[in-house]
């Protein structure tokens, strides 16, 4: 099973995406499950 790490600590998002992708045999985990800190988001847009 291939592991996909989501750049989120939101358990609800992880559950929702895991459910949506369940047919693909992926192990969906949050970055916080692996001890990865959240990135500092200082920009006002996605480009920044």
UniProtKB/TrEMBL annotation:
MF terms in GO: nucleoside triphosphate diphosphatase activity
UniProt cross-references to SUPFAM superfamilies, sorted A to Z: ITPase-like
Keywords: Hydrolase, Nucleotide metabolism
Family annotation (InterPro entries): ITPase-like_fam (IPR029001), RdgB/HAM1 (IPR002637)
Residues annotated as signal peptide: none
Entry's transmembrane regions: none
Entry protein name: Non-canonical purine NTP pyrophosphatase
Any one of the GO BP annotations: nucleoside triphosphate catabolic process
